[in-house]
Design goal:
The chain is an alpha/beta fold. The chain has 11 helices and 10 strands. It has an 8-stranded mixed sheet, sandwiched between helices. Strands 1-2 form a two-stranded antiparallel sheet. The longest helix is centred in the C-terminal third of the chain and has 19 residues.
């Protein structure tokens, strides 16, 4: 509106934080990242038609915002478990007053996929950009998402790219094309393009598309909110959720939501317990 200050973001949030994605506010790039977001969008855009987007490992939420700028309707589930990256994304979404994007801080894994399956949720498109090599049950996650997803777009570093994610997982996945072909024999698996890594690596990062399953029908463009509330939402804030008539009866879930920040003390405690249990399982 005329006379109003342009939305801004506190640059102190980026101190000692790797800036992978551009930071986009009100349709304008205010901070450049190490990766070519616009190039990646242009590569997938011809295969998108709106509806519901699931962005796994969403970093600062660039692709969710671009989705909402492109399509007038539809919603975005933006999954970012890293606390600092999620904090930046929360600030970016707030600056953009983004009410069609739901930021979740629960870890992406097969359990999350099963929650969506149980809820009957479907996604028109799923993004997994440079994230599989951080997810231990990557194969089970993809198999679960394949049951409820239209097109899936997967970017993955070469197995020999040193320093990218978990080395064991990266080598376990191997070359991404054959991995996806073996995993989805009944769907088209297409190499879209490649980019030079932001690291010092001769091997490029490849972007692949897993096509829609036979008989796929577009979604109705909305997300099951009760399921969202069970997956550690950090945006929109609690006050927004409390105004939504379809979830007002879920008083316990609403009370556990943050109004400011991405982790409540309870969530932080739960994360600490899960980390300890995970370490114990690896030792025993």
């Amino acid at each position: 509106m005329p006379g109003m200050d342009a939305p801004t973001i506190d640059l102190a949030l980026f101190h000692n934080l790797s800036v992978y994605q551009d930071v986009r506010i009100a349709g304008r790039t205010v901070l450049k990242g190490a990766r070519d977001c616009e190039g990646r969008w242009n590569a997938i855009a011809p295969y998108l038609s709106g509806g519901v987007l699931l962005d796994v490992g969403a970093n600062f939420g660039w692709f969710g915002l671009r989705w909402c700028e492109t399509f007038e309707t539809g919603q975005v589930v933006s999954v970012e478990a890293d606390e600092r990256s999620a904090t930046v994304q929360q600030a970016v979404l707030a600056a953009n007053q983004a009410e069609r994007i739901f930021l979740l801080t629960a870890k992406a894994n097969a359990h999350m996929a099963q929650r969506w399956i149980d809820a009957g949720q479907r996604f028109d498109a799923v993004l997994l950009f440079s994230i599989l090599h951080w997810i231990r049950d990557h194969r089970a996650l993809l198999e679960g998402l394949a049951r409820i997803a239209g097109r899936m777009f997967i970017e993955q570093p070469h197995p020999s790219e040193s320093g990218a994610g978990d080395e064991q997982l990266r080598r376990e996945i191997g070359p991404i094309g054959p991995y996806l072909g073996e995993l989805f024999p009944d769907r088209s698996v297409v190499h879209l393009t490649s980019w030079a890594s932001h690291r010092e690596c001769e091997q490029p990062r490849e972007l692949w598309m897993v096509g829609e399953p036979a008989g796929w029908q577009p979604t109705n463009g909305s997300v099951d909110r009760a399921t969202l509330l069970d997956l550690e939402p950090a945006w929109p804030p609690r006050s927004w959720w409390q105004r939504q008539s379809d979830v007002r009866h879920l008083t316990r879930q609403l009370a556990a939501l943050p109004e400011h920040g991405v982790l409540t003390p309870r969530r932080r405690l739960q994360r600490g317990v899960r980390k300890i249990l995970g370490s114990l399982r690896r030792w025993f």
